[in-house]
Design brief:
CATH architecture of the largest domain: 2-Layer Sandwich
Number of helices: 7
Largest sheet: 5 strands, mixed
Strand order of the largest sheet: 2-4-5-7-6
Number of strands: 7
Order of helices and strands: HHHHEHEEHEEHEE
Number of domains: 3
Structural class: alpha+beta
CATH class of the largest domain: Alpha Beta
Helix content: 55-70%
């Protein structure tokens, strides 16, 4: 409607200007009398009579011409308006309706039907477009139903997983108590009967004590992992219930030495060598997400390299992108001595669901480094990786 209103205003202004020009031209039309200095009185009298007759005829002709011009202008004005309305009805309006329809579809509003007019320029297409809208609407409804069913299923599975995880935790607590009592009892026996034990009995008792401590350590590892699983399942459960696009990451002030303890709890991944100790300070991190990051990276090195894993810590400063301010970070370098990653796969490692050419016989979903990079960025830090006589990952954890 705005387009036709604008067109009508422009046409009216043009026609009004044309009418004004016609009136100005009409007013300027006049007959000029020639020089009368050479005429005598009798000839002058005759000339005046002839002039008056000619002037009267000229004025009548001018008035008649003005009348015809006004009539022609009025007819042209009416015809112009009529033509504009016809063009709007059959050309502009269908385009506007199609434009509005496409805009509503783009917004996701599939409840607005497209008016069907057989006689306009889109007459053969409007019905097909409206059928397309109905199909899109039905498809969207099916998608929403499937998404709802998926969320409900994930919520149910998350809830159901809590029971076996709780059982594992409880069993670990019971076994931890039993093994601690056995260790304490055996240590007391060794102390009380130290002089009465022969070498063979003492060696057997010490081996048994070592085995009990090893089992106790494994129980502690299982308990910690079950605790981690419980937290992850809880996060998925909350995210599903709240219909969030991603699980929340909430970095808080924590002691940096906590990070070192995460590496110490990953002995099942082989020999992890701590080249130095982490500087003691406060850092911003989400403890659960940081533990996931370290577990993913060390687990990848164990899976694909199978060598010793060296971990070192350093302090560094970097300029933050955007504001140009400097910030201090703890840099964690995790290095293995494996074959590294192919140059073709290296730029794609943090892409979602990407798995390298050497992952064909390995279990996984291609999400480990993607999530690690995502979690580090959300904690205000970052992650870099490269090949250097093995695969190297550098994690930046922001200092308080």
């Amino acid at each position: 409607m705005k387009k036709i209103r604008k067109l009508l205003i422009i046409y009216t202004i043009v026609m009004a200007a044309a009418l004004g020009i016609m009136v100005i031209l009409w007013k300027n039309m006049k007959t000029i009398m020639g020089s009368v200095a050479s005429y005598n009185a009798e000839e002058l009298e005759i000339y005046k009579k002839i002039w008056n007759n000619l002037n009267d005829n000229m004025v009548n002709g001018q008035n008649l011409m003005l009348k015809y011009m006004v009539i022609f202008w009025a007819v042209l004005l009416v015809l112009g308006y009529t033509l504009i309305l016809i063009v709007y009805r059959f050309e502009i309006k269908p385009v506007s309706e199609m434009e509005n329809f496409a805009s509503e579809i783009a917004k996701g509003n599939l409840d607005v039907p497209l008016p069907i007019h057989k006689n306009n320029m889109f007459g053969n297409f409007t019905e097909s477009f409206d059928i397309m809208r109905e199909e899109l609407k039905a498809s969207k409804e099916r998608e929403l139903e499937a998404e709802k069913a998926k969320r409900e299923m994930v919520a149910e599975l998350s809830h159901d997983l809590k029971t076996p995880v709780a059982t594992i935790r409880a069993t670990c607590e019971v076994l931890d108590l039993i093994y601690r009592k056995d260790i304490e009892k055996l240590e007391n026996e060794l102390k009380a009967k130290a002089d009465n034990f022969n070498d063979t009995d003492k060696e057997e008792a010490e081996q048994r004590l070592s085995g009990l401590k090893s089992n106790l350590e494994k129980i502690g590892y299982i308990y910690n992992k079950s605790d981690m699983i419980n937290e992850l399942v809880g996060s998925v459960f909350r995210a599903t219930l709240d219909d969030m696009q991603e699980i929340k990451i909430e970095p808080k002030e924590n002691e940096s030495v906590t990070i070192e303890s995460y590496f110490e709890g990953l002995k099942e991944y082989g020999n992890i060598i701590m080249d130095n100790h982490i500087p003691e300070c406060l850092v911003y991190m989400d403890k659960l997400r940081m533990e996931q990051v370290i577990d993913n990276i060390v687990g990848n090195s164990y899976k694909y390299a199978g060598t010793d894993i060296h971990v070192s810590f350093d302090e560094t400063e970097m300029v933050l992108p955007g504001n140009g301010n400097k910030a201090s970070f703890i840099k964690i370098t995790i290095r293995d001595a494996g074959p590294g990653v192919s140059e073709d796969d290296l730029p794609l490692l943090t892409e979602k669901f990407h798995r390298g050419s050497n992952a064909a016989d390995k279990q996984g979903y291609g999400l480990g480094l993607y999530l690690a990079n995502h979690y580090m960025e959300k904690q205000g830090g970052g992650m870099e990786y490269y090949n250097d006589n093995g695969f190297v990952v550098e994690l930046l954890v922001k200092k308080v």
